[in-house]
Amino acid sequence: MTYFSLPAALLLFQAGSNGAATPPPTDTGAGLIEMITHSGPTAFVVLVILLVASLWSWAIIFSKNSTLKKANQQSRRFLRAFRKAGRLQEIAAVSEQFKPSPLVTVFDDVYEAYRRQTGGYGPPTNLTALERSAQSAASESLTILEQRMTWLATIGSVAPFVGLFGTVMGIIDAFHGLGTAGAATLRAVAPGVSEALITTAAGLVVAVPAVVAYNQFSARIREVAARLDDFTRELMNSMEEAGQPSEPAEAGRGLHK
Known about the structure:
With 257 residues, the protein is an all-alpha fold. It has one domain. It has eight helices and no strands. The longest helix is centred in the last third of the chain and has 57 residues, at 186-242. The N and C termini lie far apart (118 Å).
């Protein structure tokens, strides 16, 4: 009886010992903070660079989103006012109310060129010059909307490589320390490798929002460019109709002198 119970007792003792040796779960967030605070100089510098890049990219994202939102809202309001007006002078008098709109910039430049041609009354004498003024104003408006977009593209493309640089340097330091200690164990190299991999994760965290924002803003700016082209054609048609001595134009279309 004792012979058969001895293996069972040994198995129970081993299971109890393994259960007692199981380490308690650690707090991942606290461990991450501890690894960051105890990072080497190279990893710390990389993390600081990525933090600055992240703050700058988010500042651009919030600013650009606000600018494009206001531009779209004011463009819709200006188009409604433009199509309801019957005279150029009426639109010019209220255009300042819709100033954030790039359409206002196009209209103001074209109206200024129109005033130089006609003194503000009568049909335009050179529609080609007005079209060139509209194209220049549209290009200027798009350039303003595209400001700092290159920063988002740069951060989105460079941040992962900055994080990878920190990872490579961290792994080099970890293996150098392993060779110096002379203990070829996973426990000796794991802390250094985990600290090094933090920089790769940080690089991705910085890059992904910048890339997503860049693509979204680029699409919205292309929509603004298409709207500028449509408005330019509508404005030129209205001026051309205003110069024709025909029947009164329909409300919201021809602009009378």
